[in-house]
Write a structure and sequence with these properties.
Number of helices: 23
Structural class: alpha/beta
Low-confidence stretches: 206-213, 440-455
Shape: elongated
Distance between the termini: 42 Å
Largest sheet: 6 strands, mixed
Number of strands: 9
Length: about 475
């Protein structure tokens, strides 16, 4: 067990207690202090004075990655495990991980984990469907979704294998474990157990990684590591793995930081923005098209260097976005999206739907006639740039087709009831999505295992007639193939 420690005096005692009281007591704990100034070293030393399993060192260089690498060089156990000095480990974690490793002889075993915030907690099994059962001898070709789980502390790895493959943690201010874990996934067959084997604490404070995540240098370091991970994945020359990798990081990991870096026009985020464009240049078009449409719009705008469009796309939908579109050449933005991705009508229609039409639908009763007419006129003018009608829901189509300049006609279009057939098709598709989300379709729909329910809901919601029918047909076809 390797623990890098920096200014965690208030927490490291709990961390060590949780490790030293494991049901599997054949544990060696290597603590590497990284120049703490708050008494962390003293707390760790007290444990080493009373428990021979604990060994304390000072980091000969500087940084969390260097501390982990040095700790590995001092470790003597058969397996490596990692922890941070402010987290805890469930009491049976290493017993369960070792039992699985001994049963199959594989070199890495991965478990689920729990993240604890000040007011709630989240089991990783709830938002990443890869820890639902024991699985053995996996590779990335079997399950690329493990590229969404790149932390080092929810697993054990055979030390001889780690050293033989030359895996090491990267010197980076942030995310210094993700490159090492991608190497491990790429090179090692691994097992999975469903039990949570780690409790990760989300700390609030100036020294926590959470607080540093919005700093420009920290974000640039993260993307540098992400680019290195992308190179590893691309070197596997497997389109399935590569697409799943980019879909995962662009929808979640990278997206977490996009608003901060794009929203600031200052030069301090210029390196992040440059690296983001490089990363997007590696991603296949199909991987981006699989994302929710608002993310497609942002990333395609970034790829073109249209930072103004990207910033507008990140605004609150409805009137705030409509007001921002009024201040720019919105026609050019819409046309650029259509030309960038001619196969995706939903992208070119998105600003119209999320800005002007959402403002009309959400606030029709509160808008004055003049404001309503203005929003409608702008929406119609953007549609006339060549956006196809099928990119809109039935309700949105009625609004666009209403007489320009007539508030009463727009309000009448809003009040018009939807045809019963469309409502039925939308309801059926949404119910199918709920069944998929609850995993209630059994073996007949195994092909749906990782299809996101919200994608179906997005297609079917109140509804684009053609899409509602197609999504039900797709469900039936995939069910038969599964």
């Amino acid at each position: 067990m390797v623990i890098p420690a920096f200014n965690v005096a208030d927490w490291i005692g709990m961390t060590l207690e949780s490790i030293l009281t494991q049901t599997e007591n054949r544990i060696e704990v290597v603590i590497v202090d990284d120049g703490s100034t708050d008494g962390t070293l003293e707390v760790a030393t007290k444990f080493s004075d009373t428990d021979s399993r604990v060994h304390v060192y000072s980091n000969p260089t500087k940084g969390g990655a260097a501390a982990r690498n040095f700790g590995i060089s001092q470790a003597r156990g058969e397996f490596l495990a990692f922890a941070d000095g402010d987290d805890t480990v469930p009491e049976r974690a290493y017993e369960l991980l070792l039992q699985q490793a001994n049963r199959t002889g594989n070199d890495m075993v991965v478990g689920s984990h729990v993240t604890v915030w000040p007011h709630y907690l989240l089991d990783r099994r709830r938002n990443l469907p890869i820890f639902d059962e024991v699985r053995e001898g996996l590779t990335l070709a079997d399950e690329p979704l493990f590229l969404r789980d790149r932390v080092c502390w929810n697993r054990i790895i055979r030390r001889s294998t780690w050293n033989r493959l030359g895996i090491a943690f990267s010197e980076a201010k942030r995310s210094n474990d993700i490159q090492a874990m991608v190497w491990a996934y790429a090179l090692i067959a691994f097992d999975v157990i469903p039990e949570p084997v780690y409790i990760y604490r989300r700390r609030v404070g100036s020294s926590s990684m959470t607080s540093q995540s919005t700093q420009a240098k920290s974000l640039s370091d993260y993307l540098e590591q992400e680019l290195a991970c992308a190179e590893i994945v691309r070197a596997l020359q497997n389109r399935w793995i590569t697409d799943r990798y980019f879909r995962g990081i662009l929808e979640f990991d990278v997206w977490t930081h996009v608003g901060t870096a794009i929203g600031h026009e200052g030069s301090e985020f210029s390196v992040f923005r440059e690296r983001l464009q490089t990363l997007l240049s590696f991603a296949a078009r199909d991987a981006i098209r699989a994302l929710p449409v608002h993310q497609q719009v942002v990333y395609d705008s970034v790829a073109r260097g249209d930072w103004e469009a990207a910033r507008i796309a990140l605004l609150e939908q409805g009137r705030p976005m409509a007001a921002a579109l009024d201040a720019v050449d919105a026609e050019w933005i819409v046309q650029s999206l259509r030309l960038t991705n001619s196969r995706s009508a939903s992208q070119s229609a998105w600003f119209i739907r999320a800005g002007y039409l959402k403002a009309i639908i959400d606030e029709c009763g509160q808008l004055s006639d003049s404001n309503l007419i203005h929003l409608h006129r702008r929406a119609v003018s953007l549609v006339q740039t060549g956006v196809p009608k099928h990119a809109f829901t039935w309700r949105q189509q009625q609004i666009v087709l209403a007489e320009v300049g007539s508030a009463s006609a727009i309000r009448a279009a809003m009040a018009r009831p939807e045809p019963a057939g469309i409502v039925r098709a939308a309801s059926a598709a949404k119910e199918r999505a709920r069944e998929i989300a609850r995993r209630e379709l059994g073996d007949r729909f195994v092909g749906f295992k990782y299809l996101r329910a919200r994608d179906i809901v997005a297609l079917a919601r109140r509804a684009r007639p053609r899409h509602a029918k197609r999504i039900l047909a797709m469900a039936r076809r995939r069910g038969k193939r599964g």
